[in-house]
């Protein structure tokens, strides 16, 4: 059994502004919505809620996969989809006045389309109530159902995010129901089908990978023309989850950022506390710098 090393100083988080946190939580409770911030025990919940941002978790809170790094509950047969969820989510975006929203989901391998239709409904409802809000979807691999992927892309999200999570050597241990090549294929197909959508992926480190292996994954992501990359430190949610094998220094995270920028990523967010949607609203600046027109958008 690997003994988890002591958490270093650089992983301490600032105390949140509880008044603002309480306001966000009140809206979420009022509209009966889940956030990945809470369900996955994200260390940045205080900071994000303090700034009035949240990553909405749809079709949950139970997941049909039981990845050993993730703190979201496992359930082989989750409840049927709540058809009112997209409207309630859109109302939360309106009340919070979000400029950028991230919508993610649990894996729903029990559904024929993996939940693609629910993503589409959320996008459409947000466009009605908050037309200026940019929308990022952080999707599962849909079991390789590329028709379902195209259905999501046809709804024209601004950013399509799908996490790589780890290096190929560790997939069997870390992401046993995932597939590294399928992840790359999803990102490649997203770029081919909807070149106006910014593609994004994320890695967590501290599970025994090497610098060479991380850089090889970064190269693979550039080969499928992935635009945005996030890299953050894995933290063990509970004792029953995978342990941390090492804490990566801020200097190493910065080195990966520089390497990624040299490879051609439009944006690399790399730090110990970085998560898939941490400071995701910064993509709006990137979209201004590297604009892409959606079909039907006014020029």
Overall description:
The protein has eleven helices and eight strands. It is of the alpha/beta class. The protein has a single domain, classed as TIM Barrel (Alpha-Beta Barrel), CATH 3.20.20.70. It has an eight-stranded mixed sheet with strand order 1-2-3-4-5-6-7-8, sandwiched between helices. The chain is globular and about 45 Å long.
Topology diagram in text:
Blueprint (H helix, E strand, L loop, with lengths): L17 H13 L3 E2 H4 L5 H6 L4 E4 L26 H12 L3 E6 L10 H14 L4 E5 L7 H9 L4 E3 L9 H4 L5 H14 L4 E8 L5 H13 L4 E6 L16 H14 L3 E4 L12 H7 L10
Parallel strand pairs: 2-3, 3-4, 4-5, 5-6, 6-7, 7-8
Antiparallel strand pairs: 1-2
Helix pairs in contact: 4-5, 5-6, 6-8, 9-10
Identify the notable features of this structure and list them briefly:
alpha/beta
In a few lines, what is going on in this structure?
With 299 residues, the chain is an alpha/beta fold. The chain has helices at residues 18-30, 36-39, 45-50, 85-96, 116-129, 146-154, 171-174, 180-193, 211-223, 250-263, 283-289; strands at residues 34-35, 55-58, 100-105, 134-138, 159-161, 198-205, 228-233, 267-270.
Tell me the number of structural domains: 1
Largest sheet: 8 strands, mixed
State the distance separating the first and last CA atoms: 59 Å
The number of helical segments is 11
What proportion strand? 5-15%
Low-confidence stretches: none
CATH topology: TIM Barrel
Mean pLDDT: 88
Radius of gyration: 18 Å
The general outline is: globular
- By secondary-structure content and strand pairing, the structural class works out as alpha/beta
Strand order of the largest sheet: 1-2-3-4-5-6-7-8
